[in-house]
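Q: Joint fold for the lines below.
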Amino acid sequence: MPAASATETVDFITRVRDSFARQGAMQTLGARLVRVEPGLVDICLDWAPGLTQQHGFLHAGMVSTALDSACGYAGLTQMPADAAVLTIEFKINLLAPAKGQRFRMEGRVIKPGRTITVTEGRAYAVDEGREKLIATMGCTLMCVQNRDGLNN
Amino acid sequence: MPAASATETVDFITRVRDSFARQGAMQTLGARLVRVEPGLVDICLDWAPGLTQQHGFLHAGMVSTALDSACGYAGLTQMPADAAVLTIEFKINLLAPAKGQRFRMEGRVIKPGRTITVTEGRAYAVDEGREKLIATMGCTLMCVQNRDGLNN
Amino acid sequence: MPAASATETVDFITRVRDSFARQGAMQTLGARLVRVEPGLVDICLDWAPGLTQQHGFLHAGMVSTALDSACGYAGLTQMPADAAVLTIEFKINLLAPAKGQRFRMEGRVIKPGRTITVTEGRAYAVDEGREKLIATMGCTLMCVQNRDGLNN
Amino acid sequence: MPAASATETVDFITRVRDSFARQGAMQTLGARLVRVEPGLVDICLDWAPGLTQQHGFLHAGMVSTALDSACGYAGLTQMPADAAVLTIEFKINLLAPAKGQRFRMEGRVIKPGRTITVTEGRAYAVDEGREKLIATMGCTLMCVQNRDGLNN
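A: Joint structure:
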């Protein structure tokens, strides 16, 4: 495969940023895109009272919301410019209470494909500079082209 | 097994309602507890711009946030009064875009246990009174007793 | 959709039976196809020492082998005659030790699709005529057409 | 944590080997334990006609049988000497057809725990010395002590 040109590189970063900005859920989470590379996206967010479960930790669903976006956009970086990405399914294991001031979610492509892309995610709680693995995700994506009403 | 007394019935409903009210995430979702019975909880919420993915549908993570709470509280209805419930893992399959005015999430206990409880969830989009299945979840819970800082 | 003709009905049953007969793994399990209907397949097998884990119960992987075939063939019943079915992923919850003389695995289509079909499976242990639910599966299938070396 | 004594090291290896030898399913697969270290187990097996799906590849269920044992025994290496290990659930993603002469399955502990241990598995097809990743697993284990009829 030939190396991506500078234009193409700009393109996938722009596409991910634009799509991320249209996700109302990411604004609700106060989530920021902190890294976008081919097959790799990192998202950060801060603890907030509107994201908690009953013990004051981050709700497992909110952890999975950020991980799902990280995995989905990691997949989108390697899809054609006119493709939309849909999540088929994901599974999350909660390893420890999501307790911390800040959280970092990693999405990584394990196996890209024309139709199906498989990704993995890891969530870390960050407390006073120390990172702790709190969740792992396996997430399967579908690349959709030429479907009405779906763009990236 | 003897029938639950009126007091016990009130107790598990009160415990679920109180815990639900402490989840900041449920307020962010505008989620309402609409049914609480032994092994069974339903949650409803309305579409809102702060809950969306890039195409304007409900974000898969927000669907899973409501389903995870429905499954977790379905499990809590059958746990001892002093127990806390933690999600070990869940898997969600997205069957159709989460497109609708309103959503109903069902959590059901499949297999209660002293330590591990297995539950299933189903999410429906409600549009002009018609319900459409949009997601299924399998969710494993742990019953935790006597752990510092964790109550129901 | 018009009703399937008698010829088409025979066709999907024949395709499932022929494909099942080519699975060496089903012979190793001593598995029998006991029900084949649109979107629905049941498989039975007997306990055997070559299928066990360390406590003498059916190995979780052997339970999932039979469930995966039941789910895959349930999906195949609703795919075009020239399609092959591939498993993208599955998740299994083991609810109780797989202890019994005989086992029955159900595969059911939850959501058929042109590319992606979502199915659910349930495994039962049968002991002296009494059935006990021992495992649940969620399984995602892909319908593949015109790919070299893959037929049903 | 103090270093394990030579006796303890021998103990966990012996316990894993003895338990593996009691799994009839591992003999059916022709599976060999090729690596046993704290939190880490590798299993190898050869292609055989009795392990196949309809296209002659290794059946997804047989891949998951070997991966489940690799993950379970990786967990057992870090459990108390009198504990038994049970699989609560696992999820497998099939990334490519399981096509090869030989297969290697890795089980790794991600998060050990007193009750719940979370592991990950990876399966590789080996063809003419070249390894290809064909499947990933996430597997949750329970450590069981003092339960009738269950030893390691």
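Q: Anything notable?
A: Chain D touches chain B at residues 88-89, 91, 115-116, 138, 140, 142 (CB under 8 Å). The first helix of chain D runs from residue 6 to 22.
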